[in-house]
What we know:
This protein is mainly α. The chain has helices at residues 2-13, 16-34, 38-55, 59-99. The model is unreliable at 85-100 (pLDDT under 50).
Amino acid sequence: MLENHSIQKACEGITEEELKKLVWATDKLQQEINKNDRIAASRTNIEFHRLLYSNSRNNFLQKTTDSSWFLFESFLSARNEELHWWINLGMRNETTSTYS
């Protein structure tokens, strides 16, 4: 519901510059999807939606969705650290098992 309202409001007064930023974000998102980089794609998805909500020119909507996206970004950061920890652990295990 919030997204539909944001899109409607954004379309009512979107500038050429704002449209270029949205196109840039969708292109970046597609590249990250093609690379199968889910964390980066999720972050770019957040960036796209923040642009969209910003373009709606509705401060309440921006503040409400920013707090939700902030929580999601915190989750992604935690998942990214966990992912790196598991990858590093796997690399260490592969290295040590080769020499055992």
